[in-house]
Design brief:
Elements: E1 11-14, H1 24-33, E2 38-40, H2 43-49, H3 51-60, E3 64-65, E4 69-72, H4 81-98, E5 103-106, H5 111-114, H6 124-145, E6 149-151, H7 168-178, E7 186-191, H8 192-195, H9 201-208, E8 213-218, H10 242-251, E9 258-260, H11 272-285
Parallel strand pairs: 1-2, 1-9, 2-3, 4-5, 5-6, 6-7, 7-8, 8-9
Helix pairs in contact: 2-3, 4-6
The protein binds zinc ion.
Zinc ion binds at residues 152, 191, 217, 261.
């Protein structure tokens, strides 16, 4: 396993971590101040400054991307399916323009939450089938433009509103069904927040192997968790054995960034320099 204790060259910042503290331009300036080499920006942050300007800012700052957040939300009623398809193709194009190594995909939950305006349904099996269909369709497009798709399984608490792909096994079963030859264009984004509890996680990481491991996200699980979406912890403040999971991922040959992704009402209240200083310190000590 790589030694992160001496520097933070393999730390990436998911820009949602400081999204309340400034726009993408300000976040990129803050990364430069702290010697952070990579980011994973969100679509709405890119849209707010304009795609062309975002591309220039990333290039001028000499930043790399560890991913692009996010596409997916494949579940929709018939009237909204085309919108989902077109929106995902645009997301892939943006990721390509920004030089991202992959686009992170969150599957979508039930249709009424996945695509606004869709008719309500309680059929989670149908939702899961739609996710697989949507991924199959997007994979054709991803192949044309050569941009890998990273499925991020989410903790089961989000099955209704965000993602009905809830375990690493489920995500890898989809990968094996749609990309049996392991072309490198379909894999997983593993976020310790979503997978740490899973008794199958270590064998599934081994099953994934290097060519399916496209991104690695870190934060921590606080006890108690006050808000299932926006109370993620800073690494070291919770119960996740992050180093063990990183060791398993790196044992497969993953050599990319450890991307810090913290949605937290508490950390959004703190000055950006304090947040980034803490991220760097924890990256070196507990990631
Ligand atoms: Zn994540």
């Amino acid at each position: 396993m790589r030694d992160f204790s001496a520097d933070h060259r393999w730390m990436s910042l998911n820009t949602a971590t400081v999204r309340k503290q400034g726009d993408l331009a300000e976040i990129i300036e803050a990364c430069a101040r702290h010697g952070i080499r990579a980011i994973d920006p969100w679509r709405e942050q890119v849209a707010a400054v304009g795609l062309d300007r975002a591309v220039r800012m990333v290039r001028d700052a000499g930043l790399e991307l560890s991913g692009y957040c996010r596409g997916g939300m494949f579940v929709a009623d018939a009237a909204h399916r085309m919108q989902a398809r077109d929106d995902n193709r645009r997301a892939v194009d943006e990721a390509k323009a920004l030089g991202a190594p992959c686009i992170v995909l969150v599957a979508g939950g039930l249709p009424q939450y996945s695509r606004a305006g869709s008719a309500a349904s309680k059929d989670i099996a149908a939702a899961r089938a739609q996710v697989e269909d949507g991924l199959a369709e997007l994979l054709v497009y991803a192949r044309e433009v050569n941009l890998p798709l990273a499925i991020e399984p989410l903790h089961p608490a989000y099955a209704a509103d965000r993602a009905c792909v809830n375990t690493t096994k489920q995500a890898l079963d989809i990968c094996d069904a749609l990309d049996p030859k392991r072309t490198g264009l379909l894999g997983v984004a593993l976020d310790v927040y979503h997978i740490w509890w899973d008794p199958e996680v270590l064998p599934q990481i081994a099953r994934a192997g290097k060519d399916r491991l496209l991104a690695f996200h870190v934060c921590d699980w606080l006890v108690p968790t006050k808000d299932i979406l926006n109370d993620r912890g800073m690494m070291g403040d919770g119960v996740i054995d992050i180093k063990s999971i990183r060791a398993a991922v790196e044992a497969q040959g993953f050599a990319g960034y450890s991307e810090i992704e913290i949605f937290s009402n508490d950390w959004w209240e703190k000055p950006v320099d304090e947040v980034l200083r803490t991220c760097i310190e924890r990256h070196r000590s507990v990631v």
